[in-house]
Amino acid sequence: MPDPLPIPLLRVDNLVRRYGGITATDNLSMEVVPGELHAIIGPNGAGKTTLISQLTGQVMPNSGTIRFAGRDVTSLPSYKRSRLGLARSFQITSLLKDFSAIDNVALAAQAHDGHSFRFWGNARKEPRLREAARAALERVGLGKRADIVVSQLSHGEQRELELAVALATRPQLLLLDEPMAGLGVTESARMVALLKELRKEVTIVLVEHDMEAVFALADRITVLVYGRVIACDVPNAIRKHEEVKRAYLGEQHAVTRHG
Amino acid sequence: MKPKLNASNAVAALMCVALILLPVYSAATGNIFILTLFTRIVIFALAAASLNLIMGYGGMMSFGHAAYLGIGGYAVGILAAEGIGSGFIQWPVALVVSALFALLIGSLSLRTRGVYFIMITLAFAQMAYYVASALSRYGGDDGLTVYKRSDFAGLINLSDRNQFYYLCLACLFGGLYLIWRIVNSRFGLVVQGVRSNEQRMQAIGFHANRYRLVCFVIAGTICGLAGALLANNTDFVSPAVMYWTRSGDLMVMVILGGMGSLFGPVIGAIVYLLLEELLSQFTEFSGLILGPVLLLIVLFARGGIMGLLGRMRRA
After folding, report:
1. Does B203 touch chain A (CB under 8 A)?
2. Between chain A and chain B, how many beta carbons pairs sit less than 8 Å apart?
3. What is the C-alpha to C-alpha distance for residues B209 and B117, in angstroms, rounded to an integer?
4. Which of A77, A95, A118 has its CB closest to that of B200?
5. Residue B178: how many other CB atoms lie within 10 Å
6. pLDDT at residue A255 above 50?
7. Which of A56, A118, A165 sits opposite B185 (nearest CB)?
8. 20 to 30 A Cα–Cα from B227, which one of A104, A144, A255, B15?
9. Band of the pLDDT at A98, cuts 50, 70, 90?
10. Is there a contact between A107 and B208 if contact means CB atoms under 8 Å apart?
11. pLDDT single digits (tens) B216-250
12. Is the Cβ of A128 closer than 8 Å to some Cβ of chain B?
């Protein structure tokens, strides 16, 4: 169980995001401490992806603040947050489809290796970028698929590649938006094993529908319903939480796991 | 990247050899017309190659690229009219003014995407067209005659047909080499990455628009060089070179030859201008044939002629 004392790596205060009449993020506050794997769960439409997008800067909140590593990043554009060490994977795979796997990862490494106003040398021959990319690909088990164009990779491989891209930016905090989405049983198991390895090195915020994975991995779980935090606690406490059971998990699930 | 032996590379290599040997053929057969025609083709190929940099590699559908042909041309023409005949002054001015114009319209138009980007680049080019038409001191609508070609202190004589052709060809090859280096560089990969998925590129830490803008300026500058060549070629510059149909011609050359292929715009310029020339001998309505040809290319050969050739290897 993580020590509740350390200064949070990420701190969200009173975040609000409205879309017309709908409040997707409703006065939301939460903290992520260094070293933990913090899962965010909630029924469909609970505003999980909207929250992640606000954390990484693709969506700007209407009000509230986001502090990352002691710095107010609320109004920073996404590319600047990435440079501070905030990386994300996308729920719907969002890669450079006409690039090879290794090009995707090498570009992520390049983004964090000074500016890219270098017009002459062949970037595909820079050992530093290529080696960093290869290492990240090996990490996620795609070492042998480095030269395959993304559109030729399987869905599972693309999910793994998403992770490699995020890793190559050498993040302090990794925001994973449903990394298991659309994966088969064996692929999911591989992803869980991979995340178990990664969590030793990097703080992770995990949005996921796969409850088995969430309860196996998470140090703490935040439950969102209609954009509001209804609970935030360790997995065992979440299982027993009455409001959570009602809103989300379903009685049967909670009972069988009660153990 | 290792050059692969396939149909498109073979055609590109053949094309280069043919372009280099063309003056020899012209001299042997006494066919001056073909040299004149190909000088023009080579200049347009350079302009199309520069458009390909932003359109094919960068995904920026600029519909105002001919503006730089006019700006480069007017820089030469106006300086010549004011008694400054040295190419060492005229050409750098042509490049710098083109770059500044690209910086101006790029920084405004790159805030938009898609159709709006097409329309705003078109609007800026049309503004340049009307400004040139209003320059009564420099011929206004009628255009400006360049009485003396750029003078390079005796190093090269632009009035000599062969020397001028080779100068244009050197500019084309130099431009292509530059573009080739750029697209494989760190910068080039970022620009192509932004074309492929802008949100992703932002998420991994790239300020996408900054790279797009620099790319836009490079392309405009290269096209400004083509404009300086064109004014010397025709000994004349008029607002017509900036008219939106000219920008359309450049786009057609790029699409016909193959967007995002290094030599695509060259083969596109050759095929397009040769077809135009040939068809105009038979009919006034060359567009009636060119139009459907383009339609077929767009419908059935996404990668243009180079794309078709590239696929032949696999077939």
Report:
1. yes
2. 98
3. 13
4. A95
5. 17
6. no
7. A118
8. B15
9. very high
10. no
11. 999 999 999 999 999 999 999 999 999 999 999 99
12. no
pLDDT tens-digit profile of B193-213? 999 999 999 999 999 999 999
Chain A residues 105-124 with CB within 8 Å of chain B: 106-108, 110-112, 116-124
Give the 3-state DSSP-derived string for chain A, with helices as H, strands as E and coil as C: CCCCCCCCCEEEEEEEEEECCEEEEEEEEEEECCCCEEEEECCCCCCHHHHHHHHHCCCCCCEEEEEECCEECCCCCHHHHHHHCEEEECCCCCCCCCCEHHHHHHHHHHHCCCCCCCCCCCHHHCHHHHHHHHHHHHHCCCHHHCCCEHHHCCHHHHHHHHHHHHHHCCCCEEEEECCCCCCCHHHHHHHHHHHHHHCCCCEEEEECCCHHHHHHHCCEEEEEECCEEEEEECHHHHHHCHHHHHHHHCHHHHHHCCC
Per-residue model confidence as pLDDT tens digits over A12-68: 999 999 999 899 999 999 999 999 999 999 988 889 999 999 999 999 999 999 999
A107 with B204: Cβ contact below 8 A: yes
pTM (predicted TM-score): 0.92
Beta-carbon separation of A110 and B203 below 8 A: no
Percent of all residues in chain B with a pLDDT value above 90, rounded to a whole number: 83
Contact yes or no for A123 and B185 at CB 8 A: yes
CATH number of A1-85+172-259: 3.40.50.300
Q: Where in chain B are the domains?
A: 36-242
Using CA atoms, how far residue A225 sits from A25, A244, A258, in Å, is: 10, 9, 22
Distances in Å between the alpha carbon of B184 and those of A33, A142, A244? 41, 24, 53
How close does chain B come to A194, measured CA to CA in Å?
21
Best of A49, A55, A60, A78 to disrupt the B interface (most B CBs within 10 Å) is A78
The arithmetic mean of pLDDT across residues B28-35, rounded, is 95
Please report, for chain A, the start and end positions of each structural domain, with discontinuous segments joined by +: 1-85+172-259, 95-170
